[in-house]
Specification:
The complex is a heterodimer of chains A (257) and B (451).
Chain A lengths: L2 H4 L5 H27 L22 H14 L5 E5 L19 E3 L7 H13 L7 E5 L9 H4 L19 H22 L2 H13 L6 H13 L2 H5 L4 H7 L13
Parallel strand pairs in A: 1-2, 1-3
Chain B lengths: L5 H17 L2 H17 L3 H20 L5 H29 L3 H6 L1 H4 L7 H16 L9 H9 L1 H4 L7 H13 L7 H26 L10 H32 L17 H7 L2 H12 L8 H16 L3 H19 L1 H4 L4 H15 L7 H11 L12 H16 L2 H4 L12 H13 L13
Classes of the chains: A mainly alpha (257), B mainly alpha (451).
């Protein structure tokens, strides 16, 4: 008996539950979408000094990708461009002698594979956005996880490139691309629906960012990545909320748009 | 797949429910089976293949070997599931125990490289109970392979129980297949799922994060050691309790009632009572299919030892689990021998004593015997560290969880025997689930998955 003829009793309480739950989830997703769009210039990369780092809160891998991509599209066109994953993240302008340092920008993403870097470079080439003189491409050890991180196409969550090759793809490739897009969508929902992400990506700009001195940042940053403070400081996990209001960037306030 | 994931909550569950209520009645059982296989298959194809093999074996033997003598039928029907259980769960332990050489180890390499399939002990015991009940003539053989497979693999309880008996669920599955209108209890299901998720994250996962800052190799005093023991007691309880509650709630959404697995075990007055309240379906399984069959109370001490050693071994392949079983056998026997004195204790004292004794056994779940002894030495050294890891706020957090566990009766707020209306408000339930979802990034696998 199909649903329409089964005449299921309407469970008002269950419906009320669904409405409230979906409303809460919807608010978070909508706020995140708004925040991601409105805040692409949140980090003014050109204001960064060579020894400064931008640190992202929570699991905002995709946020980093969006910022870097936005900077590639709309920022200054550099002479030297570095592409790669987190291992090249420490390579900064200060590592090159002048005048080359000033001409360099590091487009690294926290997690990126070779095909994804290829996508970014191809996109930049097609739109005449490539660095003018030199491209430096680096990727991590291919033997990690059987080489999958090197060749898999879904590490950086750069949803912008999900359908990059759609036009040229065969039916089976289109299926794979669609599957990949679905996986990204699920991962994105998971990423957005996390308390860390909410505090860092939605409420921080509302309350204003707290700029932490470089020394403070250096002192707390390793702890934050290796073991978040709330791991050892619970049950006063209210601390998590307080920490969430902070967007930690070393250096001056110019890094904020 | 875990209940505490976005994939399950936002995609798998809604899709399964929609399919279940959209298809004609005779197809519902197919939806349940398919969903269960997808749910289990998400953890790997080898475990799925193993599950299907076990189901096929149970079905074929129970249907086509019924003419065999009873004992032979039982032996034949349980030998394959037990063999699989041994190969995938106890082989490494056996090899270590007998000190087998590299040639023997190499021979079994294909089994050793596979991670223990999730819930293998649960569905193996379910299969064994079915086979024994069929051989004993307590239940009719199930001729419908789909219905039989759905019974073994029903996804809400597949990975961590409750361990079902076929006569508990046979009529319910039949009803689902023939009745035009099933009677899902969404309200109850949602309530159990919401508070189960919240309890898992707050009562188990966050406390576990806390616990990990304590290292037995670097002792920091008796108070910290004691905190780690008491906290793990609540971690394991809320981890397993939450799963069981969610399993019951999810099954209700499909119009199926599952038995309770926990009856507020931490308010037990004695170790014996504890085992009537903790993991009830396993306790009764061991009682019915082992303890009573080896003579029951006739040889009380010996049979209790055997039953608890088997219970310990069921939980894990390791000497620590055997020691844990032995520890509980000792507690139950000690209670048996001192019952007259024990029963005269004031009720709060009996409850506290039982809780403390049970709690002191849990570290054997994650420590070897030597480590457990070291931990006990740390507790009873009565040395206070100048800089303890766990401060007043941590003890306060634990005290809140303890107060909830000991003083807020589950039968009031969850099962509505004496309703506390606030827990039935849809916005409260929705908020509970929402908070749990936001804390999913702290989530761990359920501890009992590995059993």
């Amino acid at each position: 008996m199909p649903l329409s003829r089964q005449k299921l009793r309407v469970d008002h309480k269950a419906i009320r539950f669904m409405v409230v739950f979906l409303a809460l989830v919807g608010i978070v997703l909508a706020c995140h979408a708004y925040r991601s769009r409105s805040n692409l210039e949140f980090v003014a990369f050109e204001g960064l000094k060579p020894d400064e780092r931008v640190i992202y809160f929570g699991n905002a891998v995709s946020l980093q990708g969006s910022h870097k991509l936005h900077h590639l599209r709309h920022g200054k066109q550099y002479g030297i461009g570095v592409f790669g994953d987190h291992t090249v993240g420490q390579f900064s302008r200060g590592d090159l002698p002048e005048p080359y340092g000033k001409q360099m920008f590091n487009y690294f993403l926290q997690a990126a594979s070779l095909p994804e870097i290829a996508d970014v470079i191809r996109y930049a080439a097609e739109h005449e956005l490539l660095p003018k003189d030199v491209l430096i491409i680096q990727i991590e050890n291919p033997y990690v996880a059987g080489g999958q991180p090197l060749i898999a196409h879904d590490r950086s969550d750069l949803g912008q490139f999900a359908f990059f090759n759609w036009g040229d793809a065969s039916l089976s490739e289109k299926f794979l691309l669609a599957m990949r897009w679905c996986e990204r969508a699920v991962n994105r929902v998971k990423e957005v629906l996390s308390l860390q992400n909410i505090w860092s990506n939605i409420f921080a700009p509302i309350y204003g960012a707290v700029v932490v001195e470089p020394d403070t940042c250096k002192a707390t940053n390793p702890d934050r990545f290796a073991a978040p403070p709330w791991v050892t400081k619970l049950p006063s996990f209210i601390e998590m909320f307080v920490i969430g209001f902070q967007v930690r960037t070393p250096g001056d306030k110019k890094v904020f748009a | 797949m875990n209940f505490n994931t976005v994939e399950f909550l936002f995609f798998f569950l809604p899709a399964t429910l929609i399919a279940y209520f959209a298809v004609p009645p005779r197809w519902r059982i197919y939806v349940i089976l398919l969903a269960s296989l997808v749910f289990y298959g998400a953890s790997g194809l080898t475990p799925l293949f193993l599950l299907l093999l076990t189901i096929t074996w149970g079905y074929v033997v129970s249907n086509y070997a019924r003419a065999l003598p009873r004992r032979l039928l039982i032996a034949l029907s349980v030998c394959f599931p037990l063999l699989m259980l041994w190969l995938y769960k106890y082989l490494r332990f056996t090899i270590d125990l007998v000190g087998a050489g590299s040639t023997t180890t190499g021979l079994f390499e294909p089994f050793l490289v596979v991670v223990i399939p999730a819930g293998i002990s649960f569905y193996t015991f379910q299969m064994i109970s079915y086979c024994i009940d069929v051989a004993d003539g307590k239940i009719e053989t199930e001729r419908n392979p789909i219905k039989f497979a759905a019974f073994i693999s029903f996804f809400p309880q597949l990975i961590a129980g409750p361990i079902l008996r076929y006569d508990n669920i046979r009529d319910q599955l039949e009803r689902v297949m023939v009745e035009k209108k099933v009677s899902p209890r969404f309200t109850t299901g949602i309530k159990f799922l919401s508070f189960g998720l919240l309890a898992k994250v707050v009562g188990a996962d966050i406390v576990l994060f806390l616990l990990e800052s304590y290292r037995i190799e670097a002792p920091t005093g008796s108070a910290d050691a004691l905190y780690s023991i008491l906290a793990y007691s609540f971690v394991i309880y809320y981890d397993f309790w939450a799963y069981s509650i969610m399993a019951i709630g999810l099954a209700w959404m499909f119009g199926i009632e599952l038995p309770r697995n926990f009856l507020e075990p931490y308010i037990s007055f004695s170790p014996k009572e504890f085992w009537r309240r903790w993991h009830v379906t396993l306790s009764y399984w061991v009682r019915d299919y082992l303890y009573l069959r080896i003579g029951g109370n006739e040889r009380y001490v010996v049979n209790i030892m055997i039953a608890f050693l088997a219970t310990g071994l069921w939980h894990g392949a390791g000497l620590n689990f055997l020691a844990w079983g032995l520890y509980h056998a000792f507690l139950v026997i000690a209670y048996h021998l001192t019952q007259r004195v024990w029963d005269r204790l004031p009720k709060p004292v009996g409850i506290a004593l039982t809780f403390i004794l049970v709690s002191f056994g849990w570290p054997l779940f994650y420590l070897d015997f030597g480590g457990w002894v070291t931990l006990m030495q740390q507790v009873f050294s009565f040395q206070l560290a100048p800089e303890p890891i766990f401060r007043v706020r941590h003890w306060l957090f634990l005290a809140i969880i303890a107060a909830w566990t000991f003083f807020v009766r589950e039968r009031w707020w969850l099962f509505n025997e004496k309703p506390l209306p606030v827990f039935d408000w849809a916005p409260i339930q929705a908020t509970a689930m929402f908070i749990a979802v936001l804390l999913f990034s702290f989530s761990r696998d359920f501890i009992y998955f590995r059993f």
